[in-house]
Design goal:
Elements: E1 2-7, E2 10-13, E3 18-26, E4 33-39, E5 46-52, E6 58-60, E7 68-73, E8 78-83, E9 92-99, H1 104-107, E10 113-116, E11 120-125
Parallel strand pairs: 2-11
Antiparallel strand pairs: 1-3, 3-8, 4-5, 4-9, 5-6, 7-8, 9-10, 9-11
Amino acid sequence: QVQLVESGGGLAQIGGSLRLSCAASGRMFGIYGIGWFRQAAGKDREYLSAINLSDASTYYANSMKGRFTISRDNAKNTVFLQMNSLKPEDTAVYYCAATRLSGFYYFSQDSSYYYWGQGTQVTVSS
């Protein structure tokens, strides 16, 4: 069993920044990737980014490149999502998830992820 806990969400101003954290614990053996997703009210869940825990390769949805940066701290079993130049449309619940699959395609599919955190709310407003 793997437990994921997100933190770092909250209220941000337009153009501001937030750094989300995803702390992982439990049986991490065989977990190859951690991904970030978000879901805005009334919308489908959206893939944002993923990181390969073995080699730190990073992957991004095209729409997120340049504003969001994913990173990891293996010693702390924590993955971060740095979000810059925030926009009102970034308002959503942000989730991290863990997968036993690897590769560009699998990292971008929410069906690849078995373990999910509870989510953290991000609200961007003026």
